[in-house]
Amino acid sequence: GWLAWMPRIPQESMPISATRRYYPLTRCIRCLDSNQRLDVTGDLASALNLDRPKGALVANLHPKSPLSAAGIKQGDVLLKLDGRDLANAQEFNFRLATLSIGDKAEVIFQRRRKSFRTSLALMAAPEDPPRDTSTIGGRSPFTGLEVMNISPAVADELGLPASAEGVVVSETGRSLGRRFGFRRGDIIVELNDHRPKSVRDLQAALQDRLGYWDVGILRKGRLIRRSFGG
Predict the structure, then answer these.
(1) Would the pLDDT of 24 be above 70?
(2) Exposure check for the chain: N or C terminus, fewer CB within 10 A?
């Protein structure tokens, strides 16, 4: 899930006795994706001064997520959700998935060997930037692909990392682009000398009509380079 417009809590202003109130808006979809949370192993527990392996280590966090809005930061260890101990990252996500629209949950976490408490408000991933869904026309390896700008909402829908940005292939259908090997979820990171940040950037780059296309796509965390024409 995501929370775009809530104030951050200063790092040193969250004693265990304090909670913060936020105003929930809608359904929380996802707070962390599979590349952002880690189980606390025995070695990690020792390094973090925990009495045993437990909780979920926040390895990365989208700046607009509810956890970020609640003051939680990279490197924090989530220990309890609504009073229940968290054995690992999977349990955190399971318990989070049982919450409903407008719910708030109390989170106890550890930072720098100190425990803190905060209140987590759940809401939907924002459409920021707008997705600007477009189907690529003309004659190129991209012809017929549906593409859109990546926002937290789009990342959630397509199973992309929460930190993903730029332009993504949202549908291939029976397009020419599909025959050239593009897949749903491919992030277009390079096109010739361009690094498209938006659908408009990609469309502008395709207007160059150079007769060749050097393409870089990010697929499931792997950078793939392909060349067409020339």
Answers:
(1) no
(2) C
What is the per-residue DSSP string for the chain? ---SSPPPPPTT---TT--------S----S--TTTEEE--HHHHHHTT-SSS-SEEE----TTSHHHHTT--TT-EEEEETTEE--SHHHHHHHHHT--TT-EEEEEEEETTEEEEEEEE--PPP--S----EE--SSSTTTT-EEEE--HHHHHHHT--TT--SEEEEE-TT-HHHHTT--TT-EEEEETTB---SHHHHHHHHTT--SEEEEEEEETTEEEEEEEE-
Dig out the tokens for 16 from the structure: 């265990």
Angle at 114 between CA 108 and CA 115, to 5 degrees: 15
Taking the complete model, does pTM exceed 0.70, yes or no?
Answer: no
List pLDDT tens digits, range 180-202: 999 999 999 999 989 999 999 99
Query: Which two three-digit tokens encode residue 75?
Result: 């490197």
- Cα 84 to Cα 1: distance, rounded to the nearest angstrom: 20
